[in-house]
Design a protein that fits this description.
It is a single chain. The protein has a single domain, classed as Divalent-metal-dependent TIM barrel enzymes (TIM Barrel, Alpha-Beta Barrel), CATH 3.20.20.150. It is an alpha/beta fold and 283 residues long. Strands 1-2-3-4-5-6-7-8 form an eight-stranded parallel barrel, surrounded by seven helices. Helix 8 packs parallel to helix 9. The structure holds zinc ion. Zinc ion binds next to loops.
């Protein structure tokens, strides 16, 4: 396995720092702490000078792993569906300007008023087909991120890595150079009895486009905003990373922690320092 005491292999998803500082300050803090890459969110970028932010990130010596995240896809009407797809096209264009390796798709759950999860999934697959072409034109891979099934209604009707890979293959077929793949987040998939098999499948088809780490705390106070630092919960983070690396994954390992009550209350410097220690010791 790769040694993550080499911080160049480690990425900071800016959500980990709680969205409390302007993106330029966050970029500087991540670079000062010695990390190799960053994953910004649209809320930090949209409406600003994207080219300037991109230059700043590059000048700071950081790569961009992923750009977070998609507008939810499923909709009750065709018009809204098309508007959702178009919003994602614009975000993918920004991802290209940022030099992001991938655009991270959290696909959305049921549109309000619907009980048809199969229809929602069909819309996601159709959208993936539309967006992968736009991504290719802008040099951005499209990474479907399956979310823990607790979010199926409101955030992601895509719950399993196997579902994400089925969708990739349905849209793109088998490809030596795929542009549609999966982002594997240990928080969402650690419990999956078929995880090793599906990560091997993702690796064999070159479809691991990102790898997110944090931990599942017991008890978890809030499934959205009480994620743990690696080592503080029950996920075998290193074991899952080993599966990805056996599968050929060589991209950065990205920490992504939503933690309103703990990590978001600490200084950026302290959180980054603990991230670095936990990358090296337990991730
Ligand atoms: Zn994630």
């Amino acid at each position: 396995m790769r040694d993550l005491s080499n911080r160049n292999l480690c990425a900071i998803n800016t959500a980990t720092l709680g969205f409390r500082a302007p993106i330029d300050d966050v970029v500087d803090a991540v670079a000062r702490a010695g990390f190799g890459a960053i994953a910004p969110w649209r809320r930090e970028v949209e409406g600003q000078d994207v080219a300037k932010i991109s230059r700043h990130i590059r000048d700071a010596g950081l790569a961009v792993t992923g750009y977070c995240r998609s507008t939810y896809i499923p909709a009750l009407t065709r018009l809204t569906f098309e508007q959702n797809v178009q919003a994602n096209r614009l975000a993918i264009t920004d991802a290209g300007a940022l030099g992001a390796y991938s655009f991270v798709m959290v696909v959305g759950g049921l549109p309000t008023g619907s009980k048809d999860i199969a229809a929602a999934r069909a819309q996601v697959q159709e959208a993936a087909g539309l967006l992968v072409e736009h991504g290719r034109q802008h040099g951005v891979r499209i990474a479907l991120e399956p979310l823990h099934p607790v979010y199926a209604a409101d955030r992601s009707c895509l719950s399993l890595l196997s579902q994400a890979l089925d969708m990739c293959e349905a849209v793109e077929g088998s490809s030596a150079d795929p542009w549609l793949g999966a982002c594997i987040d240990v928080y969402h998939v650690w419990w999956d009895p078929d995880l090793a098999g599906q990560i091997a499948r993702a690796g064999a088809t070159r479809r691991i486009f990102g790898f997110h780490v944090c931990d599942w705390l017991v008890p978890t106070a809030d499934v959205l905003n009480d994620r743990g630092m690696m080592g503080d919960g029950v996920i075998d983070v290193r074991g899952i990373r080993n599966m990805a690396e056996i599968g050929g994954y060589r991209g950065a390992v990205e920490v992504e922690i939503f933690s309103t009550k703990n990590w978001w209350k600490r200084s950026m410097e302290e959180t980054l320092q603990v991230c670095a220690e936990r990358f090296a010791s337990v991730s």
